[in-house]
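Support reply, case 0932

Customer input (verbatim):
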Amino acid sequence: MNPLPITEADVQAYVDAALPEARRSDVESYLATQPEEAGRVRAYLSQKQALRSSFNPILDEPLPANLSALASAPPTVAVDSLHRPLLARWSLQRIAAGFLIALVSGFAGWLAHDRYPPAESLAKAAPPSLSRQAAVAHVVFSPDVRRPVEVSAENEDQLVAWLSKRLGTPVRPPKLGALGYELIGGRLLPGNVGPVAQFMYHDASGQRLTLYVSTENTANQDTAFRFAQEGPVNVFYWIDGKFGYALSAGIDKGKLARIATAVYDQIDHK
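Our regenerated output:
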């Protein structure tokens, strides 16, 4: 009997470790004969691990005291012994459901508090928001095998014209060939209040780095280089005139600093 064909659902379930062992073996055999698909799966797994590294610490935070007390409080409703097991189970289920809703709501709020700040503060987004957004964009797009950028480096002139028009000001990717990194291309991304640009580079080993360029930080006058570690991603970021820049990669801090300096040296400081 011919084996069932491998579908995209199978591949995604494989990434999520949600396949039965027999089907998992079928997918692994398929990937062994499909290098491009195998590369895509490795990229998905890498992205999954990066996101887990970023957010797992939240799961280790202690529960708020009021939720702990609620979960351990004895039932206060007097019932006869015949109905006690059913109501006890119902009470525990209600507490568990309430706890789950509170936990999910709190987690979503924690994630959103600096991704979606109050409207009155959007125009003055703090530099740490720049580093966080750049790191998230790096984690999302740099593992992509098939379409890491919207416009490739072969069409750099069109890329520059398109991004400059959308940002409303000239923007051009720096040359990093002397440091071993060549431009792959770029894409347009949504910022807090407008578009931002992302340029992506890679070296001979396939290591990728991204340069995030924003015009949303013009009110901030702090032009110093700053460093942030966002999960597995190292980020150097700074403000220069009308632009905010953030260079992100999973490489050594010292090496990334040298590349950031090279980027800065090529910027038109107006």
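We compared this against your earlier run and they match. Two observations from our side: The chain has three domains: 8-59, 66-115, 125-265. Residues 86-93, 110-128 have pLDDT under 50 and may be disordered. Please reopen the case if you see a mismatch on your end.
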